[in-house]
Amino acid sequence: MPGDDRVRRFVALGDSQTEGLGDGDDTTGPRGWADRFAERLAPHNPGVQYANLAVRGRLAGQVREEQLAPALALRPDLATVVAGVNDLLRPRFDADEVAGHLEAMFAALTGGGARVATLTFPDMARITPLARPVAPRVAALNHRIRRAAHRHGVVVAETAHHPVVTDPRLWSPDRLHAGPLGHDRIAAAVAEALGVPGADDSWTHPLPGPPRATPAGWRTVAGDVRWAASFLGPWLVRRLQGRSSGDGRTAKRPDLLPVHG
User: Each residue of 207-226: pLDDT tens digit?
Assistant: First the structure.
């Protein structure tokens, strides 16, 4: 990366997006944007090692509590921190509290000598109309992420602004996690923000061909009902029961390992 020594240790912190849900499965193992980004780093940073501490379902405070100390112990020279979406979906959401957890991680990691990158989040209402009530929360959190990142010299990949990020072809059927194409675009966005050689803004370009046609009228309602039954309903049941999709799970890659092999 321009003006920096080569990356030797990259550590990713976060929730299901960083773990890689929507890109692969529990049989083959989730891949995800952080894996894809590490693969973009490797050709320009021989010997780089990579750890991924992310666990699905984690709130920002849980990421801080469970992942920050292990991340610091790995002494990364590059780290990514992406969390807050699970907080956005909770009935009681406090943007200042969530941003406070993120800023504490920014401060600790940069204070430990790491270069740190994060993301802003797209308006989920442009992906599923049922998420319209969440739109102001997304805007509020993005604003605070930018301010906290500025205070600590954290690089922000601005994925929120570009129309392509809400193209349905980039998203998995649950409308909450990126699909393989989406994870690849996120990896490209982070690579560009960090100045990885060969990275550019092509990730912001529209996908070839028209997006899937949006059904009209009763078909839209029927589609939303099927989505709610298949994905939203089980998610709400877990919340009411005090459970999380990450219960009993640990990080898929807790130790620094070579990116390839």
Answer: 998 765 554 444 444 545 55
Is the pLDDT confidence value at 243 over 90?
no
SS (H, E, C) the chain: CCCCCCCCEEEEEECHHHHCCCCCCCCCCCCHHHHHHHHHHHHHCCCCEEEECCCCCCCHHHHHHHHHHHHHHCCCCEEEEECCHHHHCCCCCCHHHHHHHHHHHHHHHHHCCCEEEEECCCCHHHCCHHHHHHHHHHHHHHHHHHHHHHHHCCEEECCCCCHHHHCHHHECCCCCCECHHHHHHHHHHHHHHHCCCCCCHHHHCCCCCCCCCCCCCHHHHHHHHHHHHHHHHHHHHHHHCCCCCCCCCCCCEEEEEECCC
